[in-house]
Write a structure and sequence with these properties.
It comes from Paraburkholderia solitsugae. Keywords: Membrane, Signal, Transmembrane, Transmembrane helix. This is Glycine zipper 2TM domain protein. By secondary structure, the protein is mostly helical. The radius of gyration is 16 Å and the shape is elongated. It has one domain. The longest helix has about 30 residues. The relative contact order is 0.14.
Length: about 80
Amino acid sequence: MKSGFIKAALAAAVLTSAAVGTANAAGCMKGAVVGGVAGHYAGHHAVVGAVGGCLVGRHIAKKQAEERAAQRQQVRAE
């Protein structure tokens, strides 16, 4: 059972990294590091934590980029 779970987690990590791309890796990398450490200490689930952290980190980075773009548009409109 454990090997199947590890394979599924690795497959999710590969799909996530393929979808993120290299230009947008900053949020994913930071989140993966934090999530991996947290997962390790929360029951030796570092891979699951890293995948989850990558997704959350990318989401936060995307949200911040959208906010910056909205602020730039607002400044141009004035």
